[in-house]
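A note from the maintainers: we've had questions about how concatenated examples are separated. There is no special marker in the raw files; a new sequence line simply starts the next protein. For clarity in this README we add a label.
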Amino acid sequence: MQRSPQRIVYSEIDVKSWTERRPSCGSVRPSHCPSCASASRPVGAPLVVVGHGLRARSIEGPAAPGEAPVVTDVHGRRYVCRACGAVLVVVPQGVARGRRYSLSAIAFALGWWAYERLHAAAVRERSSTAKRIGAASATRWASLARWTRCAGSLFGCEVPALGTVRERAARVAAFVASHAPVSTGPVPTLAFFGAAFCRPR
């Protein structure tokens, strides 16, 4: 049996506001289906994109710059398109598909590691709730290089394969920081806030 396609739709609500007061089904219903472009609420006709329950997941990282990392439970709103059968999951800004860490936490970590040249172990301590780390990972964090390679799917940032991984990560952090709603502050902090305004490719 072929599974219906699933699409992630980003709300304009941030993670903190979403978790403090989960939005109603109607308030975050997409205006149209991103798979077939059918209108959700056609005039004079039944709803096309209808509520389909909740989808729970956990994301990790600091809720704000300077705060300790935490695990946050997020319940995305699920919808199904009656026209094409696509399943849509509406999530708050900053939630990355298939990622354990929030987009803000990822951008923040890349900024500290690459732009501010902080040691990988110190970046992990600021980003992760994990207390037990293997000996081989005590001085490195493979996620930093992996996030740099996936910058396009995470932030819509295509970085040329020039220079070291850390140099490329610095360019990613600067790109994300340029999307922050404020223009002054350290690059890691600006990247933290800019991550929610980037769109993956």
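[label: protein 2]
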Amino acid sequence: MHDLVPVDEAAVRRSPSVVALEDDTPRVSQLFAFMAEAELRFESLRMRIVDRTWTARGEHEETVEVAIRHPGAARIVRRRDGGGLSRDYDIWVTDGRIITAFDARSNTASVRPVRDRVVGATDPGLPSFARVWVPRTPLPPDSLAEAFVHPRGLCRNVLSTGPVSWIGTRTMATGREALLLRVDHPRTSHLLTDRPDRWVEVGVDRMTGVVLGLEEHIGDRTTRQAEVVDLELDPELPDGTFMVHLSSDVHMLY
């Protein structure tokens, strides 16, 4: 997983500009604006995502467990095997300034400071498309956790790049109601899936704006199905949640 940037104190004090959606079927632009501020509607979060993919090798399942406590504290555990004693998992933890990563399969770890942000990247004088958004609690870029908890990038880089249509609503595995969107042939940098018959379905939590489900399709074939199966808003998360205890036989990379 990638480096982050230090927690920005100004970001910590932000409040959402839209507290709740008023319409049953808001305009797409309104929904995207609501989703962009999803993380501002809770102080802590616990989420578990089951991610299933289908490729030429068959079906693959991965579980992603996310814990967040604003500002800055985050823990992500990815398990690629359902067995409780399996060593096929990795852990990523940050307090917003230091990143600790541990890969159990290779028994390697790293502890490093986060990267500094490019000077001027958050200047309010920049146009919105060029200004860097500063989250209250950064998560690894390009990760499933980032897409679900911080859907601002998902909206900008994927959902808004193709024709969007409403599907309706659905009660998800968490028991929460989600607004369903379909996006046809969204832009992608992966040539193998940059096809006119590719489409994406997204389920958005009506109350918070976080993503509860993401499905990718090519024609009538499902290639990915990721869904939140457990979601807890504002739980009590002790400091120990965001600590990684490394044994003496772990190989430190840097």
